[in-house]
Amino acid sequence: MLDEFVGKGRKNDQKLKPFLVYQYLLKHSDEDHAVSASEIVGYLQEVGISAERRSIYKDIQEINRAVYLWENDSTIDEADEVLAEDSEMAVVVYDPSLKGFYVRQRRYNLEDIRLIAESVYAAKFIDEKRAKNMIDVLGDFVSEAQSEKIKHDAFLMDRTRTANTSTFYIVNTINDAMKLMIDGRRHIPEKISFKYLKYTIQDVKQQVEKRGGERYVVSPFKLLINDGNYYLIAFDDQSKQLRTYRVDRMKGVKATGEPREGEEVFAKIDLTNYAQRVFSMFSGEKEHVTIQFINPLLDTVIERFGVKESIYKKTDEKHFSVTTQIEVSNQFFGWLCGFGNKAKILEPQSVKEKFSAYVGKIYGLYSK
Q1: Domain CATH code at residue 362
Q2: Contact 248, 166 (CB under 8 A)
Q3: Same domain, yes or no, for 115 and 98?
Q4: Strand, helix or coil at 321?
Q5: Same domain, residue pair 261 and 173
């Protein structure tokens, strides 16, 4: 049916020319790489469209008009007036030093795309194949040369990444279950069920189903990301408590159709404190603790405890102390051990004694 409205012959192909010129410039040009009118003519001839250098200048003028009109919601006359008065508003410009044209303004600049690419690389919940595909997609928003630079600058690190290629489908299923509206209709948030995976010493390369394959039934409340992994905070049907699950260890996730439970329990928690307690060293009794560190560790300590609710003091020329509220636990003691003799608990005495006992148990494993 479309053929009835499309003419035939080389003249009609000329209507494609401005679009193809713009796409060629988007792919092959940037602030450091320009293309000449002759190069553009050569490309057009390769795809079967006749062109002369003079016509390329006209095409670029039309491209600048169209882009300004579209992005600024203006009229053609307004676009012409602005572009005539201020050449800086043109998206495609000529650079005399590079002897060619390049696209100066893009919807996303190189720094934006690089930041997104680095975030993709850092996310352990994205499997390697999908991560590489996503970087290829991001490359479409910058020039070919810039795309290669991004791939070179932010390479896919050799780190533990999920082998679960269904993570994003699982996230979609969970989000749908939590929605209040679906397709414009009111939706009651519902429970989900799934099988949960774990590693065993018999085969560390293959995860197995926990509880012998019995399905978990939970009420989902919040998805969050920590240290490159996706987690779900949910109200567990069995324990009647909030639990946290690694999304890439979930299998066969599906909505049950049963209304969600645990609303009052979730409403009572402070999400920031909950996340700190689950993902960091916080899982014990809260106490105000003063710890001494060597001066070079100041940045590390501030990143851990922040400055809002912590008090920092200089203790001598080589040390500082921090007093902050900590949920004292083995996780906290393990974290502190990582600093060796560069950190020391100053007070209270009760926490010093607990830490000494913790270290003593470890020492006992090696002193026999």
Answers
A1: 3.30.70
A2: no
A3: no
A4: strand
A5: yes
Answer whether residue 159 is part of any domain. no
Beta bridge partners of 259: 190
In this predicted structure, what is the pLDDT of residue 164? 65
- For 156-191, how does the pLDDT look when each residue is reduced to its tens digit (9 = 90+)? 454 555 666 688 889 889 999 999 988 888 999 999
Q: What is the pLDDT of residue 4?
A: 47
87 lies in the same domain as 11: yes
Does some domain include residue 304? yes
Residue 287 and residue 263 share a domain? no
Contacts of 312 (CB under 8 A, 6+ apart): 298, 302, 320, 321, 322
Q: pTM value?
A: 0.58
Residue in this structure with the two tokens 């989902």, named with its chain if needed: 220
The residues pairing with 192 across neighbouring beta strands, listed in sequence order, are: 218, 255
Q: What is the token pair recorded at 126?
A: 């994205």
Domain count, the chain: 4
Instruction: Give the residue numbers spanning the domain of 70.
Output: 2-103
Residues 6+ apart with CB under 8 A from 233: 220, 221, 222, 223, 224, 242, 243, 244, 266, 274
Q: Read off the tokens for 332.
A: 């906290």
pLDDT above 90 for 328: no
For 224-233, 281-290, 311-320, which range has the lowest pLDDT when averaged over its residues? Answer: 281-290
Is 116 contained in some domain? yes
Euclidean distance between CA atoms 130 and 149, whole angstroms: 19
pLDDT at residue 57 is higher than 80: yes
pLDDT of residue 271: 85
